[in-house]
Each structure stands twice: as structure tokens, then as C-alpha cells.
Specification:
There is one protein chain. This protein has a single domain, classed as Nuclear Transport Factor 2, Chain: A (Roll). The chain starts with 7 loop residues before the first helix and ends in a 6-residue tail after the last strand. 42% of the residues lie in helices and 34% in strands. Strand 3 and strand 4 form a beta hairpin.
Amino acid sequence: MPMKRLTAASIAALMMVAAPAAAVAADADILREAQDRAQIAQLMWNYVRAIDGFNPDAYAAVFTPDGAFGATKGAEALSKMVADLKKSQDDRRAKGEVIPAMHHVMSNDYIEFIDKDHARYHYYWMTVFAGAPGTNPPRLAAAGRGVDDLVRVNGRWLIRFRNVAPKD
């Protein structure tokens, strides 16, 4: 059976049919990525609020069940890490030590999407202790750069591995 030759008009007609479908797919990808970026921003906000508020359950909840912060791995160990930090500060306060509020600051962030369910979160970070207004300035405790591996689990973005000292 001889092949029909496509005319310019038939090619144009095919493009008119295919173009809207491609545009809809592109729009869906753009929308999904915008939603993912917003969810990841919320995840990282939840992370800093959990650690700065010494909330062990909320802290573990931003990680996958097998998630890790450096060598500390798994929900139970992550929760214990924060509980121990809170206990240490409470013990120091009980001895009369004044411990200012702690703030974790992440900035200059960049989200690198590996695929639709995996991302890397690149950022600079600082741990700052608040100063008393009018008397003591804030104190920078530590600073660095981080690269976290994030995954989508059951529709939610979570931290799989938090790396605050990458070796690039």
C-alpha cells in the first residue's frame, strides 16, 4: 500500500491538534513544580521551627522514617537527639545559666529537582543565639553550607538525608 504524502495543510492541522495537548502537559508540569517548591519551602520552615522549638516529634516528622541527620538515623534517634538537646539546655538553665533563644537560619537556597519525586535542597545555614535587646548582640554559633536529599512520600515532601557539611 503506497504511503500518503503529508501536505503542509495536513501537517498544520496535526500541529494544531498536538500543540494544545503539549501546552496542557507543560502547564501541568509547571503547576506541579510550583506546588512542589511551595511544599518544600513549608517543609524547611517546619524543620527550623521544630529544632528551634525543641519539639522532638515535629522534628522527626519532617524526615522519612529512615531519614538521617548526618550519622543520626531513624525517627526514634532523631527525636531523641532533639529531646537530649532540650534536656541539656533545661539542665543548664536550672543551674542559673542564661541561654538565649536559638535560631536556625537557611538562606540562598536552591531546589534541584532530580525527578518528580526526588530533589536536592542546596542552602547556606547559620545557627544564631539571640542577644538581649539593647545589651548583648546576637551570637553566631556556627555557619556552613548544606545539601539535603528530599523525597516525596505519599504525596508529602520529606527529608531523607540532611547533610550540613557536604564535601564538594
